[in-house]
Amino acid sequence: MRSIRKVAALTIAAALAVAGCSSDNKNDAPKAEMGPDGKVIVDTFSPANADLNLDTNPVTKLMSDKFKIQFRWQTTTFDAGPAREKRQISLASGDYPDLFMLIPWVDGFSQADVLKLGKQGVAVPLEKLIKDNAPNIQKALDSNQTLREMSTAPDGHIYALPQWSDCFHCSYPDKLWINSAWLKKLNLPMPKTTEELRTVLRAFKTKDPNGNGKADEIPMTADVQDGHLIDYLMGGFAYPPAGANNGGLGLLTLDGDKVSTPVNTPEWREGLKYIHSLFQEGLIDQASFTQNAEALQATGNNPDAVMIGSSPLLHPAIFVQLGSKDGRDKQYDAAPPLTGPSGKSYSGLNYPSSSTFTFMLTNKASKEAQVAAIKMLDYIYTTEGTNIAVMGPEGVGWNKPGAGDIALDNSVQPLYKRTPGTQAPKNLSWDSMAQYNLTLAYRNANVVPMDIYAEAGYERRLFQATKLYEGHDDKAQFFPTVSVWTDPSVSAEITTLKTNLDSYVSQGQLAFITGSKNIDTDWDAYVKGLDGVGLKRYLELNQKDYDGYKAGWARRSTLRDVLVDRLEHTVLACVGLVLIERST
Fold first, then answer.
1. What SS3 state is found at 356?
2. Percent of the chain with pLDDT over 70
């Protein structure tokens, strides 16, 4: 049947090509708005923090001159909530821009957003624009299977592009940073097992490692925005799936080709019992589950004494100021993944480290604006373009390597040397807004000092720390979230299910950890409640999408299928136009 369908489509297309699809072949794109200097005006929506003025930014001027674009900026903040709200208001009101250039961890579009906007005709398909004008983007899509899968919707269109940043240390977010100066003072080894960690935390609590004669030490703390407390500690018992964009726990794992979840398993229960036992002893700060990032940073920077013994976070600058006058930021080193009582030692994998969509052209953009914008992005995909857009002008934001300079990965040739943030001027680059092609090879070629405790050597410190976690992810259990597109007909349902499940699991786990629920007597009710908030349906829908991804039909993985589907769409549109023209 499928071969007959293809032949029929090709036959009809050939006939229409001879007859002519329509008499006008109109371009539906709006007429270009031009500035007085001949540049095409592109209304562009982007986040900008207090240090960033996109109107006066040198990268804006370079892109404007190079690609004949006059940017008309609509900006938000780096505060994710208000930024997303303003983005959604612009879409709902119809007063949206020609171009969205967003930041993944601020206000990036989800898969569901992209599909919805694509089906509505708001998002302009990019694949032909890329093929005709963007060889560097095309090369990246052709050479990186995951990028291609996450960029291509089930109907074969590319409605938006994500950033690709091979952030090695971001790929393993479930780290524990521990005060090694306190370990040394108390003559304790770096903990490697769940019980060795208990011993260390008890000593931090009771043996006055900060030396001020007060019992004010906090053995372990985190915050609600960045914390990976459950994820890290759970690794000694069960594989903890990482959430998107380092956003805490995920829900889905794989058991062979069966989509499953660990949060209702006996192993997960044992992990929660262990975490509860630490909390019950006062070894985990109660504020870990309520305080925000500012409160955690205030504790880490307490001027009277070093307070924090350990913190399960992506990196230590989240809880202590780098370059602290007393050098406290140099006291923290990464503990390895813990080995639990049954010998398990897992660390969650977050790959790729950015999963939202950030570059989207809309149907408000003229053809000239579309071409200029995609050519600009294509330039950013080059090494030169990335250097300038992410770091700013050469000689100010970065320099070429000098004699004796060593790359982050000391086995590769260094490529660039970034000016430390404290030495670089403000408003120098587009930075996070331009991180579209930061491959592992590119990131690892950055010149970084060998002193991992110097502020300029911080990236090497994170690189070396992450080596402890590499290999502790279980790729057999890893669910490829970004590659598995949700069936548009159930996207609203699956989004609602996930929201409800996230809330239920989070509240249930917190209740077991703090002791407001007894894990021995209340666990069965918790598991039963998961089905009450839709776990079975959620797994069923994700299984269907995953099966489609594996089979290839859901993502239209072969070029032939993509071409045929697009051809059929074009044929139907042409037939409609011909019939309309003949009836008038």
1. coil
2. 89
Q: Does residue 176 have a pLDDT over 70?
A: yes
DSSP 8-state assignment for residue 318: G
Residues making up the chain, counted from first to last: 584
495-508: average pLDDT = 94
| Residues 213, 219, 222: CA angle, nearest 5 degrees | 130
Residue 435 contacts residue 390 (beta carbons within 8 Å):
yes
Tens of pLDDT, residues 429-463: 999 999 999 999 999 999 999 999 998 899 999 99
Q: How many CB atoms lie within 10 A of CB 279?
A: 20
User: What is the SS3 string spanning 323-335?
Assistant: CCCCCHHHHEEEE
- pLDDT tens-digit map of 455-468: 889 999 999 999 99
Q: Encoding tokens for residue 574?
A: 């042409």
Q: How far is CA 487 from CA 119, 329, 536, 555, 556, in A?
A: 13, 47, 17, 10, 13
Q: What is the pTM of this model?
A: 0.83
Q: Pinpoint the alpha helices (H) of 424-558.
A: 440-444, 458-466, 491-514, 519-532, 535-551
- Look at residues 329, 302, 571 and name the one whose alpha carbon lies nearest to residue 461: 329
Record the tokens describing residue 237, joined without a space: 């018992």
| 150: exposed, middle or buried (Cβ count in 10 Å: 0-12, 13-18, 19+) | buried
Backbone angles phi and psi of 402, in degrees to 5: -105, 180
Q: Which of 399, 431, 428 is nearest to 415 (CA)?
A: 399
352: how many CB neighbours lie within 10 A of its CB? Answer: 23
CB count within 10 Å of CB 353 equals 24
Q: What's the burial of 194, exposed, middle or buried (CB within 10 Å: 0-12/13-18/19+)?
A: buried
pLDDT, the chain, mean: 89
HEC per residue, 362-398: ECCCCHHHHHHHHHHHHHHCCHHHHHHHHHCCECCCE
Cα distances (angstroms) measured from residue 434 to each of 71, 101, 162, 381: 15, 8, 11, 9
Average pLDDT over residues 166-175: 92
pLDDT tens digits for 341-393? 999 999 999 998 888 999 999 999 999 999 999 999 999 999 999 999 999 99
Token reading at 140: 């990246």
Task: Give the pLDDT mean for 539-558.
Answer: 78
Q: Establish how many alpha carbons lie within 13 A of residue 7's alpha carbon, considering only the half-sphere containing its beta carbon.
A: 4
Q: Read off the pLDDT of residues 240-268 as tens digits, 9 standing for 90 and up.
A: 998 765 556 789 999 999 999 999 999 99
The CA angle 225-227-232, to the nearest 5 degrees, is: 155
Residues near 266 by beta carbon (within 8 Å), at least 6 away in sequence: none
Respond yes or no on whether the N-terminal peptide bond of residue 189 is cis (omega within 30° of 0): no
CA 518, 522, 523, 526 dihedral sign is negative
